[in-house]
């Protein structure tokens, strides 16, 4: 990718510092105003004070690239921020590589965390390449995740001395909490608990211990309200950043203004979704499926599975600007195949990408291939 292009995108997303600094002639006063997040100014300014030349080579920045679509990703970013400071770059799966390509050319980057972003056959090679470059530049890189991963990728990452924290049995935030407990406050265990609930992983060894600290109903409502606020604000990156900051500062979801009111709006939308799914859903022998037009596919997919009476549900939404479908797949308790693995291979074979857990996964499928994706998936899950 051309250097100029990378720089432009970098500037757009919260990390204005590098680009801004290069242009400034020496105006020290300009630095603080450039920052979007005020709190970190003090920490960074002290390292930036030295003369022009020294500044150029100093790597001081901490960045966490995390998943923006659910409570686990947002909460991981929040705990990394509490433990290490720095900024979050929040992305969905299709945006993951773009974000990595952005940070790789950031001359200020010192330490990078990548959270809750599973890899697929399509992305893993490029992922290793980019991380290799980062490591050559002496950037410390930590990858924390719980999605199914190719063991060869783990080997490759460890070889280039990327710190890999990976356990398919605990959600990412719980793993962040577990790895950095000493750098986190007590409230972090609550943030991790909510993430575990949202990822259906509050019954796992560490997740269940954390849940026990809190009243179950209190944790459930907090996790749910948080999730609805995240899902309902996917197109408002500033709000998602705000959530990361508030969680990092140990706010309960109910202490963040208007979250419960917003959750009520989401609940109403979901109840309308039930009616729409009843009307628009189609079935094949082994699955129910539906194209979603006016909401996210992931919000509808559980209804598609449940209301179809099948053990697998598929919801897909066109991303017009990308010529692809964003696909969500869910399996019931009776579903005995590993949907994440099947979908990874299938989507990749159709020129897309995908993957995830045994009973919950997602994919990106080129628009003309969606029919094929459905019929093939139907065949492979019987
Ligand atoms: Mn997760």
From TrEMBL:
Keywords: Exonuclease, Hydrolase, Nuclease. The keyword Nuclease applies. Transmembrane segments: none annotated. Coiled coil: none annotated. InterPro entries: DDH_dom, DHH_sf, DHHA1_dom, Nucleotide_metab_enz. SUPFAM superfamilies: DHH phosphoesterases. Residues 62-180 form the DDH domain. GO terms for molecular function: exonuclease activity; nucleic acid binding. It comes from the Archaea. Pfam families: DHH, DHHA1. Residues 1-41 are annotated as: Disordered. Residues 298-382 form the DHHA1 domain. This is Single-stranded DNA exonuclease RecJ.
